[in-house]
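Support reply, case 0932

Customer input (verbatim):
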Amino acid sequence: MSDALSWPAATPTQRQAPADANPYLGGPFAPVQAERHDTQLPVSGQLPSELNGLYVRIGPNPMKPQKSERYHWFSGDGMVHGVRLQGGQASWYRNAYIGSKSVRAAQGLPPLPGDTRGVFDTVNTNVYAHAGRIWASVEAGPAPVQLDGQLQSVRHGLFDSPASVPFSAHPHLDPVTGDLHAICYDAVQHRHLQYVRVNASGQVDRTVPIPVRHGPMVHDCAITRTQVVVMDLPVTFSWWRLLRRLFPYQWHERHGARVGLLPRNGNAQDIRWFEVDPCYVFHPCNAYDLPDGGVVMDVCVHRFMFDASRTGPEADTQPRLERWTMPAGGQRVLRQVLHTAEQEFPRLDERRVGQPYRFAYTVGFEVNHLGGQRLYKHDLADVPMAATVQRDGATPSLHSVPTEVHAFGPQRKPGEFVFVPRPGGTAEEDGWLVGLVANVETDRGELHVLDARQVSAPAVAIVQLPARVPMGFHGNWVDAKAVSGLA
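Our regenerated output:
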């Protein structure tokens, strides 16, 4: 099917801030008070014995009480949560604050060693393994924080590199080379971004400055085998908000919106820029090269972001899954809507990063305290080439892809799910989907393990956690063989 499509309601010219209390301080978002370590967690179903590692997720958890009207979800102290799986058992759950200066001082501890880099050092957005260790990171300037196998903060540092450049919450690992690629920015440097490459041993071995205007908030990027995809979209730094001690990024439609293709070994002058109608993307799923020199990228697209709201993403941004094509001979992004449900946190089998792939996994996204959201498995095998269904890219076309759905039930609110491949398997869906779920009825967290080949089936296993795990940001699977010190 290929029809002209717009969002269900036209973007209003004057949006109103919500009148209710800050949704990001209550319900399943509410911070927890204590760090804890619990062992031998109860499990319903059967955990696959092949899962030997740590599921770890990070998010904001303010240590001190916050003023509701000033607290922004993205600004809370970082807290990491981990569930250790081995031998078909859930051997422990831990949560721990990330050791910023203010957190360490409140705990009566000295500052962590290493250079924090940047005007703030709160790290709360992503956590992953690289160069044999676990790292937590954030955008806008600060250095990552190294964690040990029990999730305690060890040091600040740009991995093992002496370089002093900003880093990102979303580096992307090239499964072929082992390098991390990221588009980074510093909150106080408004005129350029940085492309940063970190090699497999943890050394920064390439940086490229990219000129921009207005200080755009660049949350994520994507890579292909030959290109790095740069998103320069209309959420930019706001001095007005900063002076009022508010989260300093705001919707700025006049900034324009564009997507750039930077050759991996090129410089800023080599970027090909493509216009796109104003919108915002936090997270791409994947991107890959086309034979003719174009690039395809699959993204979750919000119609706006941080306009009236001062506390976090608005409830009516209507994020949907789209395919963006940057054609070899064009100057405008060609857009295809693949699924119209509100959804976010797209993931894939990351052995396919930067290459053609078939399956994308997302979860329902709603800014409320209710359960009932679903997980979606999208089959992208037969999406037609964008050039065959549209010409100018201004009006997205609709091509509804086959989608399998997992329903968690009305009392559960899922976060991001990550694909974990079966050891020794090579097929793209041969593995499990693992993620944390908030049970709004019991006010406790759960770790769900789904069979990626049968997403609509009941969970293979559910680990019952001893406390609430606040709705957070990003999680990853850390294989026991990938890091040292994982007890």
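We compared this against your earlier run and they match. Two observations from our side: Residues 51-479 form a domain with the Methylamine Dehydrogenase; Chain H fold (CATH 2.130.10.10). The CA atoms of residues 70 and 245 lie 8 Å apart. Please reopen the case if you see a mismatch on your end.
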